[in-house]
Specification:
alpha/beta, Nucleotidyltransferase, domain 5, five-stranded mixed beta sheet, 10 strands, globular, binds adenosine monophosphate, binds magnesium ion
Length: 343
């Protein structure tokens, strides 16, 4: 049994993964409401909160399962907030010492990319290896609050970066837009709720870098163009136009993501395409992603709700998906880790 531990940002999470059964339990404690009043994650508060949250999560785990069944521990070592990563690693080291089992470091971004395969493994663990043959090479789109990138997982499971945002992440663009519109935090889901009744074609927001030959994204111009638009609108008028503005703004983000992903799919022979990260909760993005994959004849793999945002299931699963680095060595925190980095 593998114990996964995640604490890179504002989620403290544990997961137990049985190699022959898949994930058997997940426990998560989110800090979203704590940070809401500051309009974003406060690193110092976040790390203190992990300190409080892990003990109750471990007690919950022990109600359902015995620590004696755990034979290895995997923990996020980066990227993430340094103080937060340190908390998860401290828990991992303490358990590793007391249980006498090895501990491995996992790259959080690689785990996000791999998370779309979790259900395939859980459904039929014994057939996973042969099923994977039919899904690689795979194109991964990771869209979260801190990252937006396209990566290729090759037949040999090596990961190559194809493109990434040169400024804001997609989730950051949604959060900043929602803040300008006074919708609160986290902005992505709030914006989505208002956008539902709006017209996505009403306002023309920029889609940056679309003519460029590369697969990079840029979202910083989007919030600037929203700010200019808002300067010309009075308060009472804004209420009435809000659904159309939200819908058009969200559409600009989704459209840029889909167009670049489609372009990357056309550039090489991929057998599947995956969508993961917190922004992949967005219904419009999920729908368009699936339509695009169908049109291009590639199998779409979408992370299920529990595995879109930060979670420990994907950290445990990463141990199944790729050979780990060295066990029992000192685990360093790597706050700025790139997806290409293996620990
Ligand atoms: P993560 O960084 O993976 O924890 O994901 C958090 C990011 O996902 C934040 O920027 C949220 O605003 C965004 N997000 C969460 N749910 C949605 C949604 N339904 N639509 C758009 N963005 C979302
Ligand atoms: Mg994440």
């Amino acid at each position: 049994m593998i114990l996964g531990i995640e604490s890179s940002c504002d989620e403290s999470a544990l997961a137990l993964l049985d190699r022959s059964k898949g994930i058997v339990g997940e426990w998560i404690s989110s800090q979203v409401s704590l940070h809401a009043e500051y309009g974003g994650v406060v690193p110092e508060l976040a790390s203190r909160e992990h300190l409080k949250n892990f003990a109750p999560l471990l007690r919950e785990l022990r109600k359902q399962s015995s620590f004696a069944e755990i034979d290895e521990i995997v923990v996020t070592a980066g990227p993430g907030l340094a103080g937060c990563l340190a908390m998860g690693i401290a828990v991992a080291n303490a358990l590793s010492t007391s249980l006498g089992v090895p501990v491995y470091a996992v790259n959080h971004l690689r785990a996000h990319a791999q998370s779309v395969f979790i259900d395939r493994h859980s459904d039929r663990p014994s057939e996973f290896e042969s099923e994977l043959e039919r899904m690689l090479p795979h194109l991964s789109l990771i869209v979260s609050g801190g990252n937006t990138l396209l990566a290729c997982i090759g037949k040999d499971r090596t990961i190559k970066l194809i493109g990434e945002t040169i400024d804001d992440a997609a989730g950051e663009a949604l959060d900043k837009g929602a803040k300008l519109l006074g919708l609160g935090y986290p902005g992505g889901p709030k914006l989505e709720a208002v956008a539902k009744s709006g017209n996505p074609k009403k306002y023309e927001f920029p889609r940056a870098l679309m003519q460029k030959a590369n697969f990079d994204f840029s979202f910083s111009g989007l919030k600037t163009s929203l700010r200019y638009l808002l300067e010309g609108i009075s308060g009472s008028d804004l209420d009435q136009r809000l659904p159309d503005i939200c819908s058009s703004y969200q559409e600009a983000v989704v459209d840029a993501l889909i167009r670049k992903t489609a372009k990357a799919l056309g550039d090489s022979d991929y057998l599947s395409v995956g969508l993961s990260g917190g922004v992949s909760n967005n219904r419009s993005l999920r729908q368009r992603f699936q339509n695009m994959a169908k049109r291009l004849n590639v199998t779409p793999l979408l992370a299920r709700k529990e595995h879109t945002g930060d979670n420990a299931g994907m950290i445990a699963f990463s141990r199944i998906f790729e050979d780990p680095g060295n066990a029992d060595t000192k685990i360093d925190i790597v706050p700025g880790a790139r997806i290409t980095q293996r620990f």
